[in-house]
Amino acid sequence: MLKKLLSVMMVTILAASMFATSAFAKSDNARRSLVALGDSITYGYNLGKDNSEPSQYAFPFLMAQVAKLKVTNLAVPKLTSSQLLDLVKNDKGYRQDLKHADYVTLSIGNNDLLAAVSGATVNGTLDVAQLQASLVTTVLPGILGNVKNTIAEIRSLTDAPIVVYNIYNPYQVSNQLMHTLTNQLLTQLVNNNLGALVQSLAAADKCNTLVLADAYTAFGENQLLYVRQNDIHPTIEGQKLLAEIGEVALGMKK
Predict the structure, then answer these.
(1) Which pLDDT band, with edges at 50, 70 and 90, does 254 fall under?
(2) How far apart are the C-alpha atoms of 74 and 67, rounded to whole Å?
(3) Contact predicate 191/216, CB 8 Å
(4) How far apart (Å, rounded) are the C-alpha atoms in residues 37 and 85?
(5) Residue 94 and residue 153 in contact, taking contact as beta carbons nearer than 8 Å
(6) Beta bridge partners of 38
(7) For the SGNH hydrolase-type esterase domain, which residue ranges apply (predicted)?
(8) Rounded to an integer, what distance in angstroms lies between the CA atom of residue 56 and that of residue 65?
(9) Residue 238 has pLDDT above 80, yes or no
(10) CATH of 32-249, one of 2.60.40.10, 3.90.180.10, 3.40.50.1110, 3.10.129.10
(11) Residues 6 or more apart in contact with residue 90 via CB below 8 angstroms
């Protein structure tokens, strides 16, 4: 009798445990997923105790709080557009995460531009003509081609909405030379072409869910508030703003 009672109790406990595990898994799986692709901006660089892992203040996590999303932040500091394309095409982990994405954020190209600035700087002096020439002939075409191919690769894996961020001016207004020059280059060369690319791809996107988040306009001339001093990365307020424009672009927030 005792053995029979114990047996019934064990079956009951096991069944309850399996039900609870199944219910938890179902609840967890029911959460929509946001996969974030990008560099140190998406990573939330310099916002935590150290940079060993993405900061919870990074904009993908802030977006998740509003929409109650599960976030997979795949951003890598110092990542270039060609390196991201390689990861999306060849990294099994990236591809698997993208297959299960309900939303995708893409912010890339910043390090390509910073490398161009560095390459055109000799003995602390920026050669503006050399910078413009390199942007026109190699750097910008490279960014645009890599972004286009990255989006195509993402779309081959998921029908999820994709939001592409353009590039904000990271230089403080007090750094008049670099701030003014960067504004000119971003408006007349970089962001206008990036915007045109996204618009063209969006028109041909069968999923009709490819949109642009205008970080440049959102940051405007408020680098003092949105960009860390002696740094190029967003402050927490800057990350909040990036989250907000991403939410609006994806229709999460009106």
Answers:
(1) low
(2) 19
(3) yes
(4) 10
(5) no
(6) 107
(7) 36-241
(8) 10
(9) yes
(10) 3.40.50.1110
(11) none
